[in-house]
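Write out the 3D structure for:
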Amino acid sequence: MTHTILVPLTKIDQCSPEQCAATGGYVVRNVDSSILKAAAIRVIDKWRLMAGQVEWSAKLSGYCIRVPTHGDISHRLTFTTHKSKDRLDPAFLVNDESSAQVLSRPPLKYFRHPSVQSSLHSYAASKAPIVSIHVTHLKNCACIGITFPHGVLDAVGMGHFLHGLDHELHGRPWDAPIVSEKNVFQEVLDDLETSPRMYDDIHQETATFSSLRRALGPATYTNLIYLLTDIVKENVWHKAETKAVYLGPNIVKKMIREAKDKVQRIGNVPVSTGDILTAWMLKALHADEDDAKTVCLISIFSLRGTFVEKYPAMRDYPRTFISIF
């Protein structure tokens, strides 16, 4: 008999994340696919959520994950490989800790097999495994891509999986996130929607909570038109390209140290590494411009730390838990 538990997804999981899959990739000099596959299966066996299957629940009127608590899970991994005569730009094989360069993104086909599903609906209809790994062996390197439905994992959730994979590959012990039939984030959302405030003292309600309340409002046709117009403008008019900036760890450490030393001389102002890198990115983008201008920023950040005191299980919550602030 197969023992399973049903893990419900939240409203946010089933909004925009429902429609896409997220792929993370690595470019390495070489990889043994059999060792990688065996390590991935061990991760899935320990973190049973990854062995689950997306399904629609008529009772809950939403998507859930049917998670097996016992039994063999080796079939709950999509693992594909491909050999290509192509060569990747050697710039991607970065190993200089003190260099900085702009890189164009390698083709997605090197990291994601075309058979991989995208939306929660397609995962549920096909009963496809949640985890998909694709390895492309090129002439001068190998590309490794790991894909999940975005409604099931966000970047933090993917980080949990990669953390476990790294430890399994190196024979180190690790603790998998707890799998529960209770969706703690839905509890948070319910509290925000039904309570005027989360704490007795109104002054303790931070701007983060207020921001999340605003983000929970219904989307309008006007906002959707604005969004689509901006996308067309950037991709068609400005011909936007997807690129990456590589900063060696020595450069990042030097940048952070110098910026924090400068801020400390001015006054006791808390500045994070993210603040410094964001400021550097904006200055680099506008370095060639002579006229002064105001740049509007929309910061999307995780709320795990904000809620972890009231809901300790939020620390390892693997799905979308962000606010636009």
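The first helix runs from residue 33 to 46.
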